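Q: My labmate handed me this sequence with no annotations at all. I'd like to see what the chain might look like in three dimensions before we decide whether it's worth expressing. Could you predict it?
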Amino acid sequence: AQVGQGFSLQQPQDKVLVAVGETFTLRCTTSEANGAGPVRWLKVWGSGNKTVYDQTGNSLPHVTRAVGESNTDFTIHIRNFQPDDVGTYYCLKFAKSDTGVDEVFQHGGGTEVSMHETALIPGMGAAAVVLCFLLLLLLGLFVALCVYRRKQQGGAVAMGSFSSVPLRCCAGTPGTSSEVLDAESSHLPSQQSSKEENDIHYADLQPLPPALGRSRSVGTAPTEYASLRAAAK
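A: Here is what I predict for the chain of 233 residues:
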């Protein structure tokens, strides 16, 4: 049986741009076939050509039909695009000749498939966005940690700056130990004064520095003094 005169074939895509690793689709539809002869997809590049899909079953492993067992939709999917998939693809309807040989009865205008070098592999765009977000988050945490540690160090320095300074006590009671008096002022009792008349002063004199104690004889022990003042009657 021959293909009817009302047969038509549509191949709507002119160009398809594909990145390495992508799956791309080639569309081809026909009217109801009334005669014998398969539909095939043929890739032409340079002076060569190759059948990528054959309705009779001779197809490449990475090529599948979009709508299986359809007599009018011969759209195909080609997985894992590689550079050697570049070329122009034609959808063809074959018919049996009088000698029984398949001859091209009708074909589409061809779809030029080229490689998009700058295109991202599927999923890579989303992964890049997530990676950038994580990097920004880590950077923010690092800056916050640095600021926190600087504040902690600043607080420690501020507390350490208020270190206690030992005070010298120049007065005490006879029953307790008193602090060492200043070498230049404590050895003269006449320089001590009392704000109140009835105060009792007591001091434990320590050896004078060598420069001031040269006039003393060797072995002289430190002395103590006390004064008692009473108000005049």
